[in-house]
Each structure stands twice: as structure tokens, then as C-alpha cells.
Fold this sequence. Notes:
The chain has helices spanning about 20-30, 45-50, 55-65, 150-160, 175-190, 205-210, 230-235, 260-270, 325-335, 340-350, 355-380, 405-415, 440-460; strands at about 70-75, 80, 110, 170-175, 195-200, 215-220, 225, 240-245, 275-280, 300-305, 315-320, 395-400, 415, 420, 435.
Amino acid sequence: MDASAxxxxxxxxxxxxxxxxxxEGLRGAVRRGEVGAGSKLPSERVLAxxxxxxRTTVIGAYRLLxxxxxxxxxxxxxxxxxASVHRIGPAVPAATMxxxxxxxxxxxxxxxxxxxxxxxxxxVPHLTPDPIDLCEPATDLGYQPLGLPSLRARIAARYTGLGxxxxxxxxxxxxxxxxxxxxxxxxxxxxxxxxxxxxxxxAGALDAARAAGATLLALPTxxxxxxxxxxxxxxxxxxxxxxxxMTTCQNPxxxxxxxxxxTEIARLAExxxxxxxxxxxxxxxxxxxxxxxxxxxxxxVVVGSLSKLFWPGMRxxxxxxxxxxxxxxxxxxxVADLGSSHVGQQLxxxxxxxxxxMATARRxxxxxxxxxxxxxxxxxxPTWSWTRPSGGPFLWVQLPYGDGESxxxxxxxxxxxxxxxxxxxxxxxxxxxxxxxxxxxPADLRIAVHRLAEAWTAFESLHGSGRLPFDVVV
Length: 474
């Protein structure tokens, strides 16, 4: 197992000797399925370097777990989880179940700058729907795998209003945008199908592609998104099944693709006969306001969601796709869950008409917090660099030196969770980058940057030494 595949925060903040805390972290990784029966663990030296602890600490943790019967070591073969351990089962790769999204993973007092969760609609009281309406029974008591007709009609009207004529038959309601992406990648990525993406890209899309068994191709980006020449060359020499892009508020960079770039990408994809997925999950958070789907959308696919405007717990997303493709995706949807929650869909149908007002409110929130975060970082961490995003909830920060994975480990011990840039790349490039969310409350942003500055001071003092001192818990 690659040490980078292990979760951030493997050593917790509980009391006791460091080797015991590492042992408990490894037990937890086994319980959560991040490490399965028979899995080979990193060598003591490699894991010590990854965590920034002494090799003695790792040796002690491995020895304790061997004594418990959880691990076994064979000279020349390394250390493994015992294959016969009762009820452990095979590993579920960490990439397909990000620990930052699992309950109970974040210690009390830690400020989370790794996600994009904003306050619920109660932050804008006059946009909160009347809950009594949700009690009205659906006219059709079936599963409705395509989604409630009333919601699909409003989604279709939304895209028609954006300049993309859409009928109800071209809309599939999903359990969040993540399911929409997973359905697409399952369809096009099966049997090693090639899915081309921007590099960097949304980490959840990489998770979905890996879970589907797809072959991923990373294409370089610039300030406008995916570069045209590398895309042209890739489409000419590779059998690409699907192109996945985020043209508006790209995750993690926050860029918005220019009209000319959109037109060029649409033309190349159409010429090559490759479907394009435009993930517009963050598009409503573009600071300039109104946005437009990729020009190929009439023959391509658009992914959307209400999660970033209202709240993720509603779990309502959708796909807008041509009818022949919609039929295939609907079959996969039935296999996945038979249909999304009717209550959530009824709520979404109420919220869509006020989504424009909510988007305006969200943009105001995010712009103010972006300004605050930028000012704090410039003051406390002047050697870090970034380009102001055109929208979305993230800053894409480049470190002056060092590795983002190692710094993220250290930052967590200071009480801040962040996403290393390597997690957003198919080839784990952008190791010197961090994705920092600025959706937290202003008071929490101030606390987080203060802690990051302290962590960076410690990181700087250790830079070039090759390891962290033994008493630093990572």
C-alpha cells in the first residue's frame, strides 16, 4: 500500500504514547475499510517519513498490532493485515470513501477548510419553504426512477431559460450530483473506458472514475480551464469515451472558461464524437452572476445540483442529457437505488423558483469571506500565492516549497483540516498546492488562518531537515 493512500490524521489527538496513538489510528483505518484483510502496509521508514514521526514510533505501533494478532510481518515481504482476521473483509480504497465526508472523523475543535458546506437556507429566512407543503402526498406512489415530473419540468425550464432548450424527457433526477457523476462514469468507464478530465479536477469525480474501473487521462489547464492543444492531441491519438469538465467555477481552481475556449472545446469534442459532461454544480456561485452551459450541451450532458445553494443534506441533483443516453442512465439509476426521495424532490421543486435569489445571497456571502480569507492569508502567510477565483468556495493556494500532504498532516495537529492538492490530480501532481475552503464563519476563518500560520512556522523550521522532530504528532 502506498503511504499516501492512508488517511490524513492517522495519529489522533487522544492521550498516551505516540506509538499507541498510531496503533489506534491503524486499527481505525482497518475498521473503516481503508485497509483490508491481507493488505500490505508501508515499511516503517516510509510511513515514518509520511507521518513525520520517528521510525521507532512506527516500529512500536506495528509491534503492538502484531501482538494483538492484527498484523503479521515476514522478512522480505513486509507487514500485512492478517488475512484471516474475523469480519474485516477486503479493503475499500480510501479514494472512494473520503474520510473528510464520513461522520465522526473530525476531532472536536478542528476547523474544516476542506469542504464546501455553507449555512443552510435559514441563513436567508425569506427563502425557506413552507414545510407543510412537503406533507402533500405524491399522486403516483411508485418509485419514479426518473424523478418527480413536477421537479423535472422545473429543471427543464431552468435550462431552457439559460439558452439550452430542454424537455422533461431529457432530465433525470439523482441523489445528489455525486450520483449523477457516478452513473455517467459507470456507463462510460466500464471495461477500462477512457475518461479525460482537467488536471486538477474535482476529487469526487476521480473517486467515481476509480470506483467504476475507468482509465483516467489528465489534461493540463490554464487560467481559462482545459488547454485546447493537449485536448486536440489526446482526442486524435486516444480512444476517449467521455470528457469531463467544469466550465464554470472549476473545482479546485475557481476559473470560469471563456466563451472562445468553450466554443473550441465543443468543436473538438463534436468532431471526435466524444460526449462532454459539463459539471455545473458550482456554476451558480460564479461571482459575475449568470452563466451558460457548454455549447455542446444539446448533444452532451449537464450535471446540476441544489447542494451548494441550499444544503447538501437534501441530496438532490440531476442530469440533463439526450434521450438515447438518458434511457441508459435511467437503467443504471434503477439498479443503484430505484429512485430518489420524493420528499427531497418536492422540497427541491419548491426551492428551484427562488434559486436565483439564493444564488445572489450566496455570492454575497462568499465574496465577503473570500475577501476576509485573502486579507488574512496575505497578512499571516505572505509567502503563499494564489489567483483570485472567479467563483466557487475555494482558494487554490501554492506553497513556496514543501509537500502539501505533509503540511496537511501537520496542520491537522494545529486544528485545521485542509485538502492537499495532490488529491485533486490523477497523477498526484500539484503536490505543492492546497485547496482551502472559505465557506466557514468569519470567526472560524480567523482561527483557521492563525492556526495555519503557526503550523507553517513549525513547517518552515523543519524544512530541509528531512523529517519532523519525534515529539511532533502528525
